[in-house]
Amino acid sequence: MRTIRDHSLISVTTAALFALMASVLPVHAQTAADAALNMANMLDGAGGGVSGDDLLAALEDAAEAGQPMAMWQLGTMYENGEGVDRDPVKAFGYFAQIANQHADTAPKGVEADIVAQSFVKVGDYYREGLPDAGIPADADRSHALLLHAATYFGDADAQYRVGLLYMSESDMGVNPLQSARWFSLAARKGHCPAQAQLGDLLFNGVEGIEAQPVEGLMWLVIAQQRCAATGDAAWIGELLNRAVSVAAPEQRTEAFALAESVAPQFAAF
Predict the structure, then answer these.
(1) What is the dihedral of CA 141, 143, 149, 152, to 10 degrees?
(2) Do residues 17 and 58 touch, judged by C-beta distance below 8 A?
(3) Residue 83 near residue 51 (C-beta atoms within 8 A)
């Protein structure tokens, strides 16, 4: 339950928050999730002269007013324990509220990425279950939420995750063609783990997919470059090194040249 605060201060802070929301809405490559982070950074105690308690109160007021960016920021704060005690139940509640209230938001709208990622996060909670919130593990519901984010919103991370589901017998069942399809959709949006998975499938070939070593190696090179210094760098590097070690010299030359020409199109992602 909220404690009693100075309502005049909160109203001013909330008004500032709404103004900042308008000023940091995504433009070009910026996403609404980026904008939510920028909003928090601009209003933190050091940058905006607003205390942590007042920021939390302003975010809560904005969330109650139906602002998805405020709900998203609160969800990530409670999920990660940033500025508040970690509370998965509250995090789930905010993400679920976004998904429930904005499921039919325009897929190319300014807040579409936040809504899509909320579906992904709620799906993750259903995958593992959240007993404290009375949420049992439900793989089918998790898959349905992920597929909505992947199909309706075209979210690259969701598409990548669907591709992974088709690599597991215990999830959607092993189907390399479906995996390659979903990885390809995400890869062409600049998702580097998807680029690596697609490259590995194409390089080696699987049932229903003839090996295409040059294109596969090209995607692996691009993925390695784009995922450098991330948590995915190690396993992508292993896939690339393995492919390079068995590729013919002319295949390596052609693939690296293709990667150099194709990679710039992902610079904006």
Answers:
(1) -90
(2) yes
(3) no
| Contact call for residues 50 and 43 (beta carbons, < 8 A) | yes
What string of DSSP letters covers the chain? -PPP--HHHHHHHHHHHHHHHHHT---TT--HHHHHHHHHHHHSTTTTS--HHHHHHHHHHHHHTT-HHHHHHHHHHHHHTSSS---HHHHHHHHHHHHHHSTTS-TTSTTHHHHHHHHHHHHHHHHH-BGGGTB---HHHHHHHHHHHHHTS--HHHHHHHHHHTT-TTTT---HHHHHHHHHHHHTTT-HHHHHHHHHHHHH-BTTB---HHHHHHHHHHHHHHTTTSTTHHHHHHHHHHHHHHS-HHHHHHHHHHHHHHGGGGTT-
Q: Closest Cα to residue 97, out of 140, 64, 127, 124?
A: 64
CA dihedral 78, 82, 85, 86 (to 10 degrees): 50
Angstrom distance (rounded) from CA 177 to CA 221: 22
pLDDT in tens, 128-158: 999 988 999 999 999 999 999 999 999 999 9
Task: Provide long-range contacts, Cβ within 8 A and 24+ apart, for 80-85.
Answer: 83/52, 83/55, 83/56, 84/56
Could you report the per-residue pLDDT of 155-188, keeping only the tens digit for each?
A: 999 999 999 999 988 888 889 999 999 999 999 9
Report yes or no: 97 and 90 within 8 Å, Cβ to Cβ: no
**By the 8 A CB rule, do 193 and 227 touch?**
yes
